[in-house]
Amino acid sequence: MKICLVEDDLELGKALQSALQDAGQEVVWVRRAGDARRWVETEPFDAVLLDLGLPDGNGIDVLRDLRAAGHTLPILVITARDSLEDRLNGLDRGADDYLVKPFVVTELLARLRAVLRRSTGWSESGEPVWKVKDLVLDDKRMLLTRAGTNVVLSKTEFALLHALMRYPDRVLTRRELESRALPHSEGAALDVHMSHLRQKIGEGYIRTVRGVGYVVDK
To answer: Which pTM does this prediction carry?
Structure first.
């Protein structure tokens, strides 16, 4: 997962970033509400870990603003505020879960997996699957089906479609796609692979945003 960690406490932020990275997660750590808003607006994340007490604002306001802007990614509140009123307020404003400090990292990871499972779907093997229209992409098995029929993709094509299906309705820039699927490519390589991918899955799934990148519409 790519996680946006919003935590102003220096020691706790360092510890959480290190623990999450040790567990194989990609982490962007910010310490201010304004930075959290900017990062989520410009980068595709799988989940947000959101502290409530921030130096330039209330995390609840960040949560409200992200939901009002249409962001549906899982948001897990991490805070020392443990009253029933605070928990209900966080959940009512759009949090997917609420974890009170102090907590152990294993529980945090389990809760992250749970909110991701609810937001994406889950395969029989216990791994996340990504669904858009009649496309189903199984992460673990590197398997794509369209209307129940297997579609054979190259490794690069799978990586491109995986990136797009993880963030449906969000335009991924050429640079973002190249960094995820074609880190050493040059020139028109992205367009060539995208053309091959479209030929295999058919029209009506991937839309070109001229001058920016590509998007999969739900």
So the answer is: 0.63
